[in-house]
Amino acid sequence: MVRKKVNVHGDGVRSRNEETEWEKRSDDAPTPKLRLRIAYGGLRYEISVSCMSSFLEVKILSVETGLQVDEQSLVYRGRERENGEYLDICGVKDRSNLVLIEDLSSIQRRFIQMRRNAKIQTATGAINDIILQLDHLAQQIHTYATLS
User: Fold this and answer.
1) So what's the architecture of 2-102 in CATH?
2) Basic and acidic residues: which segments have biased composition (predicted)?
3) pTM beyond cutoff 0.85
C-alpha cells in the first residue's frame, strides 16, 4: 500500500494536507482506496475499499451490523444500489456517505421464522409434559403390579 500526500487548494474550502491511500493492482498500477462513511440506524462507522469495488463488497465489509449480506440494502444519493454496481461508475468519492438499511423482506422472513419457532417450542413443551405424565403413570402401574 502506498500513501500519497495531496495538497488541496481552491475556493478556500480546504487548505490542509490529506493522505490518500493507494492499493497496488496485479499489474502494479496503483488504485486509490476510498474511505466510506456507513450509517446504519444509530451506528456510524468508516470502512476503506478500493474505488473499483462493487456495492456487494461494501456489504461484505459491513460485518459490524450483524446482518447477513442478503439482508442489507445500500442507499447512495437517495437510490438503493444493486450488488453488481461499481462504486466508481456510480460516482462514489472518498468520504462519501452510504446508508445501510435492513431489507424489508428479511425482516418479514425473520418474523415468520420467529412465529414458527414459537409454535414449535409450544408443541415441544406440551409433548414433554405428556411424556412426564406417562412416565409417572407407568411408575404407578409398576408399583401396583409389584404389590399385587
Assistant:
1) Roll (3.10)
2) 11-26
3) no
